[in-house]
Amino acid sequence: MELCDTPAYELAVLLRQKRTTATEILNSCLARIEAVDGRPGTLEPQPATLPEDAGKVHAFITLMKTHAMQQAQAVDEKLAAGEDPGPLAGIPVTIKDIFCVRGAPATAASRILANFVAPYTATPVTRLEQAGAVVLGKVNLDEFTYGSSNESSAFQPSTRNPWNPERVPGGSSGGSTASVAAGEAPLSLGTDTAGSIRQPAAFCGVVGLKPTYGRVSRYGLIAFASSLDCPGPVARNVTDAALMLQAIAGPDPQDATAANVPVPDYLAVLDEGVRGLRIGLSPDYFRITYPNPETGEMEEQPVPEEMTAAVRRAAKLLAEMGAEIVEDVPMPNTRYGIPAYFVISRVEAASNLHRYDGVKYGYRTPDAQNDLRLMYRRSRGQGFGPQPKLRILMGMYVSAAQYSAQYYNRALKVRSLIRRDFDQVFDRSGRYRLDALLTPTTPTTAFPMAAVYGNSVMMQYADQLTVPANHAGVPGLSFPGGLAADGMPIGLQLLGPDFSEATLLRIARSYELATESDAWRKVKPKVLR
Amino acid sequence: MTDYEVIIGLETHIQLNTVTKIFCSCKADSWFDPPNTNICPVCTGLPGVLPVLNKSAVEKGALLAAAMHAQLRPLSFFDRKNYFYPDLPKGYQISQYDQSLAFGGYLDLPMPASAGRPAYVRHVGIIKLHLEEDAGKTKNVGGERWTDFNRCGVPLVEMVTGPDLRSADEAAQYLIRLRQLLRWIGVSEADMERGQLRCDANVSIRPVGATYLNPKTEIKNVNSIESVRDAILKEVERQIREVEAGHKIEAWTLEWDEDKQVLRKMRSKETEADYRYFREPDLLPIRLTEEWKAEILSALPELPLERRQRFMDAYELPEYDAEILTSERRLSDYFEQAVLAYRGDPKRVSNWLMNEILRMLNERGLTADALRLTPTYLADILRLVDSGQINTSTGKSLVEKVEATGKSPQQIVAEEGLAKVSDDAAIRAVCQEVLSESPKEVEAYRAGKQTLMGWFVGQVMKKMRGKADPTLARQILEELLS
Description:
The complex is a heterodimer.
Chain A: H1 8-16, H2 22-36, E1 60-63, H3 65-80, E2 92-96, H4 123-130, E3 134-139, H5 174-181, E4 187-192, H6 198-204, E5 207-210, E6 230-235, H7 238-248, E7 278-280, E8 287-291, E9 298-302, H8 305-320, E10 324-326, H9 337-352, H10 372-383, H11 386-399, H12 405-426, E11 436-440, H13 456-460, H14 467-472, E12 476-483, E13 489-495, H15 501-514
Parallel strand pairs in A: 2-3, 2-4, 7-10, 7-11
Antiparallel strand pairs in A: 1-3, 4-6, 5-6, 5-12, 8-9, 11-13, 12-13
Chain B: E1 4-15, H1 55-67, E2 71-72, E3 75-76, E4 79-82, E5 92-95, E6 102-103, E7 106-111, E8 120-133, E9 137-141, E10 144-148, E11 155-161, H2 168-185, E12 197-207, E13 217-222, H3 225-244, E14 252-257, E15 262-268, E16 278-279, E17 286-287, H4 290-297, H5 304-314, H6 319-325, H7 329-342, H8 346-364, H9 375-386, H10 392-405, H11 409-416, H12 424-437, H13 439-446, H14 452-463, H15 470-481
Parallel strand pairs in B: 13-14
Antiparallel strand pairs in B: 1-11, 1-12, 2-6, 3-17, 4-5, 4-16, 7-8, 8-11, 9-10, 12-13, 14-15
């Protein structure tokens, strides 16, 4: 196995045993990037596809090669000097380009921030660096994270799915999950506002964890919906995700909403198995509700059989290992997750986008010299792509004084109801007393490029099974659960009570062990075959 | 001609005197600093930053609320007020909306007697009191618009009165009392020229006896108490003129031009702007626990108007004295300590304070607590005068000497031999000297010009450099001249 495909926890051991160096690991990743990434996304108008793009992933917006080499060298020097270089020493990580990293562009995949170079570093990135990780570069995403396919990025070509470059990688952390799936880096830092880590993790066959709201600091994360945004790890296996969470979790004096809850030792309990854990299955996560595009009426449909089957098989394996499976757990407000999200996230997004006005940094229109209002309008009109504009329009509408009771306040009530669903099933003295819920991560596997993009309502419904955890603030973990008939990965999701990341990782690790010798585990993404 | 009643409400912005800004650790006061020097990613609203609440701003805000007799909410929230302006780097201001730090409150404003009207008290209700961050400043330079973000994130309390004030004088008086209170409880320097206390005035008129409210105009950009008074007077004149001419008053926003002493129309206000308030998701609610509240309120001193009344009741001071002595907290503390040390007539302490001490404070730009002449020393001086050991003018000169040296009055009297000479023989010798040197005056006195006695005493005092007991000198002179 090449170094770039080796799990992070194994690289850490190899490094300490002096069987490799941080520079060697980095070179292996750089070689892989050279081989599979292709041209980076740019703002320049170019043909959507060129012949040379075949089989390419296009994960990166900014490759920070020199920076990474210096960091790798520093790790090697520390190791040579007998110093402790940190738990993530020499492990390359990619950073979703929605985090600030001092001295590097922070584009948010938007024209309006394309020229913005961050003067400070986001807390989770600082913590990765303090743990010795090597920051490899900034990877693509949907513009301002607004999407579930990566196609809305202003930096084109947008990221492709390494399992099939004709398909989307999911989003918005598609650059993160594609870079990890393609072996460009063992780890990536993503964000999840409605499923933006878990959905692309499922689509790309990797592990993605949305921690409890407040578990990981948001300082330096360019905000989408501040009350929902969660930074979290993307990795190729559960152990690596635990290793990364360990480094980035914890209170932060620069984020008032970061929880002052002690961080447990995630790795210590990883192999404790599932005996005695109560894991629930909910019919409300085996069906999706979406508006009929013709009539607008809500329609219900079961998720495809192969997704359900993957969840059922996982439940069976976990039961065999001693978990107690609880059937028919009611989560009745799941179906309202997307409509409520539509309102809440847009109100916060519109407000969070106010600062991009052409006055201080970022894009300023060249053609409104002497009129302030015109400069605002043109700068924003030319700088924002369609997705931010849609969110501004919707957000301004539903938060207007005459509508906010009808939409925003109502959505907040729905949010409380969704939280209550979780509280009831996780209640230690309640009827269900669950340790976790097991669900499919997504209603479908990765869809083809351009199949959904353009229909922003249907695009949003890709997050139907992931968004309730964001409303409720609870943690959610997506991990690979086999391959579908179309050859694309299936993601399984575990949802647990606040700060139960250790339990979720433990359950997923048990499943990983139980399926270790499965045939699908040997299949590589198409771009690596 | 109709008689009109003037209706005024004041909207004030009070800059809290915290060391750092409300949501970051930049220095709060930038009055002496060049533009854009006290700024950081947080207060300039860079992508990805988050606010962290300054506890001290909450404490000072709560102290002010308590001093205004407002109710503190155990749970209050921050909200976003969304609008675009180049001095607002985030495109929203973090403020408080429907669940602010405190609600209610009032100030009972004593109005002095004036021509044709006895003194009275105006009850001024507070209808809004909340914490918020300040915005920056912009100015036009040549063809360019420049922005200074130093002021972004400076903690403010916005405090709005009901439409309860009835004259420009009352409005000015309210600001005087508010400024006194802010300095008294130590939450703001309250210097209007430096923007630490800002005021917008809402003004309307109605026929006397009416109970409805007419459309009001809002006067902005008034940065002294005098200007507030002048601007309101001008605006009331204008409104009366308009109404008398049969015109309607429109809800304009007016700007006061300090130099030209005129009001200028800034904009019409047909509709209220929609700021799309919603809860600030980046901050937790403020939980004012009973313990925290008790800790904050333990710093709440007796308030100036209460102390003023007590000085009148307990020390039987005239209102004039009580007013001056409570104009500033440290001065009133000084007075009370001196009274305690002196144990004599408080009015006597007041007289010395208002004459000697205040002059000294003004001349040297000091506050009473900074004096080397402590309240105890002042009491000592008064007792030296009372007991006849020194005369009044020596006492007054002692005030300066104690302040200059820091020595006790007793020590200075001993060292400089300032004690009054009560030795009959010594004074008698000087008296004889004076009389023999002044034959003409002696002749005139004996011819009946009794008023010359004062002149003789003065001559004796002069020769003895003020140390003679003047009563004794007079007795001896009368005896010698009889």
